[in-house]
Amino acid sequence: MSEALEIIGQEVRSCTKCRLYQGTRNGVPGEGNPRAEILFVGEGPGQQEDRQGRPFVGPAGHLLTEMLGRAGLQREDVFITNIVKHRPPGNRDPMPDEIEACSEYLERQVAAIKPILIVTLGRHSMMQFFGPDARITRVHGSVRPWRNILAYACFHPAAALHQPKYREMLEADFDGLPRALEQARRQAAQQAGAASDGPGETTANDGGDDAGPPSQMSMF
Asked: Which pTM was predicted?
Protein backbone atom coordinates (compact mmCIF):
# COMPACT_ATOMS: atom_id res chain seq x y z
CA MET A 1 0.00 0.00 0.00
CA SER A 2 1.33 3.43 -0.91
CA GLU A 3 1.88 6.08 1.74
CA ALA A 4 -0.91 8.21 0.28
CA LEU A 5 -3.39 5.33 0.47
CA GLU A 6 -2.25 4.49 4.00
CA ILE A 7 -2.96 8.07 5.08
CA ILE A 8 -6.40 7.98 3.44
CA GLY A 9 -7.12 4.70 5.22
CA GLN A 10 -6.21 6.16 8.60
CA GLU A 11 -8.43 9.17 7.99
CA VAL A 12 -11.36 7.02 6.88
CA ARG A 13 -11.15 4.82 9.96
CA SER A 14 -11.41 7.85 12.24
CA CYS A 15 -13.78 9.87 10.03
CA THR A 16 -16.78 11.65 11.57
CA LYS A 17 -17.64 13.88 8.59
CA CYS A 18 -21.19 12.49 8.28
CA ARG A 19 -23.69 10.47 10.28
CA LEU A 20 -22.64 7.13 8.80
CA TYR A 21 -19.86 6.53 11.30
CA GLN A 22 -22.42 6.36 14.11
CA GLY A 23 -23.18 2.80 15.12
CA THR A 24 -20.55 1.23 12.87
CA ARG A 25 -17.50 -0.80 13.83
CA ASN A 26 -15.07 0.10 11.07
CA GLY A 27 -14.53 2.54 8.29
CA VAL A 28 -13.77 0.70 5.06
CA PRO A 29 -11.29 2.66 2.92
CA GLY A 30 -10.66 -0.06 0.35
CA GLU A 31 -7.88 -2.44 -0.59
CA GLY A 32 -5.93 -3.86 -3.49
CA ASN A 33 -3.09 -3.08 -5.85
CA PRO A 34 -1.92 0.52 -5.25
CA ARG A 35 -0.83 0.71 -8.91
CA ALA A 36 -3.89 -1.01 -10.34
CA GLU A 37 -5.05 -0.29 -13.87
CA ILE A 38 -8.63 -0.85 -12.72
CA LEU A 39 -10.38 0.82 -9.80
CA PHE A 40 -13.68 -0.78 -8.77
CA VAL A 41 -16.09 1.58 -7.03
CA GLY A 42 -19.10 0.10 -5.24
CA GLU A 43 -21.76 1.86 -3.21
CA GLY A 44 -21.08 1.23 0.48
CA PRO A 45 -19.95 -1.38 3.01
CA GLY A 46 -22.35 -4.03 4.23
CA GLN A 47 -22.50 -5.97 7.47
CA GLN A 48 -19.49 -8.18 6.86
CA GLU A 49 -17.46 -5.29 5.51
CA ASP A 50 -18.26 -3.25 8.62
CA ARG A 51 -17.14 -6.14 10.83
CA GLN A 52 -13.87 -6.76 8.99
CA GLY A 53 -13.02 -3.26 7.75
CA ARG A 54 -12.51 -4.62 4.23
CA PRO A 55 -14.55 -4.10 1.03
CA PHE A 56 -16.63 -6.78 -0.63
CA VAL A 57 -16.03 -9.67 1.77
CA GLY A 58 -19.67 -10.78 2.16
CA PRO A 59 -21.81 -12.74 -0.32
CA ALA A 60 -21.65 -9.94 -2.91
CA GLY A 61 -17.88 -9.91 -2.49
CA HIS A 62 -17.65 -13.63 -3.14
CA LEU A 63 -19.64 -13.14 -6.34
CA LEU A 64 -17.40 -10.22 -7.30
CA THR A 65 -14.35 -12.45 -6.90
CA GLU A 66 -16.03 -15.02 -9.15
CA MET A 67 -16.81 -12.36 -11.77
CA LEU A 68 -13.23 -11.09 -11.64
CA GLY A 69 -12.06 -14.60 -12.45
CA ARG A 70 -14.50 -14.68 -15.33
CA ALA A 71 -12.73 -11.59 -16.70
CA GLY A 72 -9.29 -13.11 -16.16
CA LEU A 73 -8.54 -11.04 -13.06
CA GLN A 74 -7.85 -11.56 -9.38
CA ARG A 75 -8.58 -9.25 -6.48
CA GLU A 76 -4.85 -8.63 -6.16
CA ASP A 77 -4.83 -7.14 -9.66
CA VAL A 78 -7.32 -4.36 -8.91
CA PHE A 79 -8.22 -1.84 -6.22
CA ILE A 80 -11.70 -2.03 -4.67
CA THR A 81 -13.47 0.73 -2.76
CA ASN A 82 -16.91 2.36 -2.35
CA ILE A 83 -18.37 5.82 -2.76
CA VAL A 84 -19.13 5.90 1.00
CA LYS A 85 -16.71 4.40 3.50
CA HIS A 86 -19.01 3.55 6.43
CA ARG A 87 -21.98 1.21 6.32
CA PRO A 88 -25.35 2.90 5.79
CA PRO A 89 -27.85 1.71 8.45
CA GLY A 90 -29.66 -1.42 7.33
CA ASN A 91 -27.76 -1.32 4.04
CA ARG A 92 -29.95 1.54 2.84
CA ASP A 93 -28.90 3.66 -0.14
CA PRO A 94 -26.30 6.33 0.64
CA MET A 95 -27.68 9.86 0.90
CA PRO A 96 -26.36 12.66 -1.34
CA ASP A 97 -24.78 14.51 1.60
CA GLU A 98 -23.07 11.30 2.72
CA ILE A 99 -21.65 10.76 -0.76
CA GLU A 100 -20.46 14.36 -0.79
CA ALA A 101 -18.82 13.96 2.62
CA CYS A 102 -16.84 10.96 1.36
CA SER A 103 -16.02 12.44 -2.03
CA GLU A 104 -12.61 13.77 -0.98
CA TYR A 105 -11.44 10.29 -0.04
CA LEU A 106 -12.42 8.81 -3.40
CA GLU A 107 -10.89 11.71 -5.30
CA ARG A 108 -7.62 11.24 -3.44
CA GLN A 109 -7.71 7.48 -4.07
CA VAL A 110 -8.12 8.10 -7.80
CA ALA A 111 -5.20 10.56 -7.71
CA ALA A 112 -2.98 8.13 -5.77
CA ILE A 113 -3.75 4.99 -7.80
CA LYS A 114 -3.99 6.67 -11.22
CA PRO A 115 -6.19 3.98 -12.78
CA ILE A 116 -6.84 3.97 -16.49
CA LEU A 117 -10.30 2.39 -16.01
CA ILE A 118 -12.90 2.92 -13.29
CA VAL A 119 -15.52 0.17 -13.02
CA THR A 120 -18.70 1.26 -11.28
CA LEU A 121 -20.72 -1.33 -9.37
CA GLY A 122 -24.36 -0.41 -8.92
CA ARG A 123 -26.47 2.59 -9.82
CA HIS A 124 -25.27 5.01 -7.13
CA SER A 125 -21.65 4.56 -8.10
CA MET A 126 -22.58 4.66 -11.78
CA MET A 127 -24.36 8.01 -11.45
CA GLN A 128 -21.25 9.67 -10.04
CA PHE A 129 -19.32 8.90 -13.23
CA PHE A 130 -22.05 8.70 -15.89
CA GLY A 131 -24.21 11.56 -14.62
CA PRO A 132 -27.33 11.77 -12.44
CA ASP A 133 -29.70 11.12 -15.34
CA ALA A 134 -28.03 7.86 -16.41
CA ARG A 135 -29.94 4.62 -15.88
CA ILE A 136 -27.99 1.49 -15.13
CA THR A 137 -30.33 -0.70 -17.19
CA ARG A 138 -29.34 1.39 -20.22
CA VAL A 139 -25.64 2.08 -19.67
CA HIS A 140 -24.38 -1.12 -18.03
CA GLY A 141 -21.69 -2.75 -20.12
CA SER A 142 -20.78 0.57 -21.74
CA VAL A 143 -17.72 2.83 -21.53
CA ARG A 144 -17.74 6.61 -21.16
CA PRO A 145 -14.87 9.08 -20.84
CA TRP A 146 -14.48 10.64 -17.42
CA ARG A 147 -11.79 13.27 -17.02
CA ASN A 148 -8.72 11.74 -18.71
CA ILE A 149 -9.67 8.10 -18.05
CA LEU A 150 -12.55 5.77 -18.88
CA ALA A 151 -15.47 4.58 -16.77
CA TYR A 152 -17.25 1.25 -17.32
CA ALA A 153 -20.65 0.56 -15.78
CA CYS A 154 -21.59 -2.80 -14.25
CA PHE A 155 -24.48 -4.09 -12.23
CA HIS A 156 -23.73 -4.56 -8.54
CA PRO A 157 -23.13 -8.20 -7.58
CA ALA A 158 -25.75 -7.81 -4.83
CA ALA A 159 -28.39 -7.17 -7.49
CA ALA A 160 -27.68 -10.59 -8.99
CA LEU A 161 -27.97 -12.20 -5.55
CA HIS A 162 -31.27 -10.52 -4.73
CA GLN A 163 -32.79 -10.88 -8.20
CA PRO A 164 -31.42 -13.82 -10.21
CA LYS A 165 -32.59 -12.23 -13.49
CA TYR A 166 -29.66 -9.83 -13.16
CA ARG A 167 -27.07 -12.61 -13.01
CA GLU A 168 -26.91 -12.92 -16.79
CA MET A 169 -26.50 -9.14 -17.13
CA LEU A 170 -23.74 -9.10 -14.53
CA GLU A 171 -21.92 -11.89 -16.34
CA ALA A 172 -22.24 -10.01 -19.63
CA ASP A 173 -20.82 -6.88 -18.00
CA PHE A 174 -17.74 -8.77 -16.81
CA ASP A 175 -17.41 -10.57 -20.14
CA GLY A 176 -17.03 -7.11 -21.66
CA LEU A 177 -14.51 -5.91 -19.09
CA PRO A 178 -11.38 -7.12 -20.96
CA ARG A 179 -12.47 -5.14 -24.03
CA ALA A 180 -13.04 -2.04 -21.89
CA LEU A 181 -9.58 -2.46 -20.38
CA GLU A 182 -7.97 -2.74 -23.80
CA GLN A 183 -9.77 0.42 -24.88
CA ALA A 184 -8.52 2.18 -21.74
CA ARG A 185 -4.97 1.01 -22.44
CA ARG A 186 -5.11 2.38 -25.97
CA GLN A 187 -6.37 5.72 -24.71
CA ALA A 188 -3.67 5.86 -22.03
CA ALA A 189 -1.01 5.10 -24.65
CA GLN A 190 -2.35 7.84 -26.92
CA GLN A 191 -2.29 10.32 -24.04
CA ALA A 192 1.28 9.34 -23.14
CA GLY A 193 2.33 9.83 -26.75
CA ALA A 194 0.65 13.23 -26.93
CA ALA A 195 2.37 14.30 -23.71
CA SER A 196 5.77 13.29 -25.07
CA ASP A 197 5.11 15.29 -28.25
CA GLY A 198 4.75 18.45 -26.19
CA PRO A 199 2.02 21.12 -26.10
CA GLY A 200 -0.18 21.69 -29.08
CA GLU A 201 -0.63 18.02 -29.91
CA THR A 202 -4.07 16.47 -29.53
CA THR A 203 -5.35 12.95 -29.80
CA ALA A 204 -8.76 11.67 -30.75
CA ASN A 205 -10.93 10.06 -28.10
CA ASP A 206 -10.60 6.30 -28.54
CA GLY A 207 -14.22 5.90 -27.50
CA GLY A 208 -15.37 6.96 -30.97
CA ASP A 209 -17.83 9.58 -32.12
CA ASP A 210 -20.65 8.04 -30.13
CA ALA A 211 -18.85 8.05 -26.79
CA GLY A 212 -20.42 11.38 -25.82
CA PRO A 213 -18.90 14.21 -23.80
CA PRO A 214 -17.01 13.48 -20.60
CA SER A 215 -19.35 13.19 -17.62
CA GLN A 216 -18.48 15.42 -14.71
CA MET A 217 -18.44 13.50 -11.45
CA SER A 218 -20.98 15.35 -9.33
CA MET A 219 -19.26 14.77 -6.03
CA PHE A 220 -15.82 15.90 -7.17
From this structure: 0.89
